[in-house]
Amino acid sequence: MVQGTAMATVTHEQIFREVRAYLLGLFSCPPESVIQGYQNDAPLPKQAVVMSILFEHAFDFPASYYEPERDKAAVQQSVEVTMQIDFYGNQAGDRARKLSNLWKNQYTTARLTSCQPLYCKDPMQMTFINEQSRYEERWTVELALQYNPEFEHELIYLDMPVITLSKPKE
Predict the structure, then answer these.
(1) Weakly modelled stretches of the chain, pLDDT under 70
(2) What is the distance in angstroms between the CA of the first residue and the CA of the last residue of the chain?
(3) Quick check: 77 and 61 in contact, CB under 8 A?
């Protein structure tokens, strides 16, 4: 019987925090320039780097691990996340290329702990016309990463008496 469930061991918030710290170190840019996407009524900072999770899919079936001594069970699954990183400003193309090169390298693997890099697409130029009808430089890189969230929940275990079967007498 399942009772309550707990939060995941790794969340999207943790992934955003970790990738943001990685990007800040990679580009030595001001902290306010690296932001999470989909923020309403907030102008982009100068030389912005915007992170957005596009989608995710499971690599495998959930695996269950039981801990009868704690009346708990845990369910873990390996998940691939696709994250889009948008670079704005005059350094956008160079930053996109640097991220693309280093994402596929042990440099990145050594710096991430709650998730790990898998692969990334090549940078794409996505210049757009802003609200003042001016072209703005924008480059985009799609990153794939893996994380393994685990959810713990309570589980009531039933102690069964040991039944010994004996051979019938003849």
Answers:
(1) 1-8
(2) 43
(3) yes
